[in-house]
Amino acid sequence: MKPFIYDLTFDQLQVWLKENGEPAFRAGQIFDWIYVKRVMSFEEMSNLSKGLREKLMDNFQFVTLKEITHMKSSDGTIKFLFGLHDDNAIETVVMKHNYGNSVCVTTQVGCRVGCTFCASTLGGLKRNLTGGEIVAQVVAAQKILDETNERVSSIVIMGIGEPFENYDATMVFLRNMIHEKGLNIGQRHITVSTSGIVPSIYKFAEENTQINLAISIHAPNDKLRSKLMPVNRRFPFDEVMNSLKFYQEKTGRRITFEYALIGGVNDQVEHAEELADVLQRMDMLAHVNLIPVNYVPERNYVRTPRNDIFKFHKALVDKGINATIRREQGHDIAAACGQLRSKHMESNAR
After folding, report:
1. pTM (global) more than 0.90
2. What are the catalytic residues?
3. Closest-CA residue to 337 (of 294, 277, 283)
């Protein structure tokens, strides 16, 4: 199968052009066609020579995302289930905020991390997405927003999959999103979330970007985190925290700690105080984002009562930790990662 045109970064496209007897400046024209004009065929690139268009057609293809279904929430959130060329399906979410439009992208078909409260892991990992398949999700979202003269203002890599287990493709995606001739999204308006793949955290620290890093922590200690997140057995709590400390020392960037509150499991005041103690001991510049867990039929966890959420938040703040409770979006359309795909898989299995 031919690679996708979105799989190439700007620099890689320049190299390919030179190797194929074309001037490097054509890369800017091609990026303009695919990211600014957002065409879906090489034939439309009218300021390129016929010969170059034929070379592009012979060597590359566009990503085809077939919309299987979409659901729209009362708060404006739109969740898409897209079919890929190999009949796999992925989810992409467009969220509307008062400060703009955010797109949550998927990096893998399924996930092998195995968080016990997450629907994304149901069915395991099928395959990695290419960088171009991740890019195509944002392009598709932008084409939808084009209809109302809006634009994608921020991106979160928090959909299905672990981006740091698909590191190279994730970096291709990020480079194309932030490139001035690409979609030109501000680096500080992009957040990549990991479950704690320690080698990749060290690697990401060396990338010299201003992209935000979030860590799905979900517990204040090794024992409880291993129960909730099997990945913690590969990369224990202390190793994760040490890698994050290195990242922060290298970049000076604040780290967001995502903490899903699960009723009666990790949501007590003592858990909050223990987490605060860890962050203070590590001298971390941190923000804790509290996430009331979504109910997933295949899991037995329940949502933390509202009053307990506020108590947990207060316990963190009282210890000097910057913390917020995430505003829920798409709750009425099963917008938690993997739920729409899981229903689709069940339907196909019948």
Report:
1. yes
2. 91, 337
3. 294
